[in-house]
Structures are given as structure tokens and as C-alpha cells.
Amino acid sequence: MTKDADxxxxxxxxxxxxxxxxxxxxxxxxxFSTWLYSIAFNYCSDQLRLAKRLPTTAIEEELEExxxxxxxxxxxxxxxxxxxxxxxxxxxxxxxxxxxxYEDGMSIDEIAQLYDLKPSAxxxxxxxxxxxxxxxCAQHVLN
Length: 143
Hints:
Layout: H1 5-21, H2 32-53, H3 59-88, H4 92-103, H5 108-115, H6 119-142
Helix pairs in contact: 1-2, 3-6, 4-6, 5-6
């Protein structure tokens, strides 16, 4: 019925426990083998019906997903570490501009007003700072 040897073995174990617990309910209206067969058939049918209703994921699939998530998390952490190291090599002004823009979410115009610069100057400084970060990260990866 199950086409899976391990599952069949589990079912057999469960069925014999069920039969043992219900021995006192056997009334000898039919042969013992017929009674045993009906319990086994009903148990297997119930289990297979239940399995169809419940979504199941193979353990291998779950493990693969967990491995992928773990690898992704590790790569994310490593990338953050590399970027933090690169940020540490920038000047204080470069770090401040990047933080205002990307951590605090300030607009180019707001940063320009804060530093009394033209928006084009802020854009250029941010661009150069990003290029430095990319360059430092690339050097780290290549080493």
C-alpha cells in the first residue's frame, strides 16, 4: 500500500501495538486473520489519507533550504564585515556623508544644506566615496 519499505515497517509496528491493545475487543465473529487484516487495512488507509491532507516536505529538501539560508547568512555577514573594514579606511568626512545618505536617509539637498555645499558637490563626494568602498572591497576579495 505504501510503496515505501520504511513506512511499511512503521505501519506494521503501529498496527501490532494497536492489535495488542485491542485483543480484548476481538469477539471471534470472524477469524483472527480477518480481524487483523481489517485493522491493518483501516490503519493504512487512514494514514495514507492523512498524509495526502497534510503538506509534507522531504527532510532532504528542508536540509538543503537550511544549508542555503546558512550559506546566504554567512555570505551576508562576511560582506558586512568587508564593508565595515572598508568604511574604516575612509576619512571621517567620507564616512559621515555615506552615513547621512544611506543610514539616516537624508536627501542630497539636505546634506548639501548641512555642509553648505552645492548638491552637485555632495553627489560627487558620495560617488567618490562609493568608488573607494568598491575598490577596497574588491582588493579584500582578491587578496
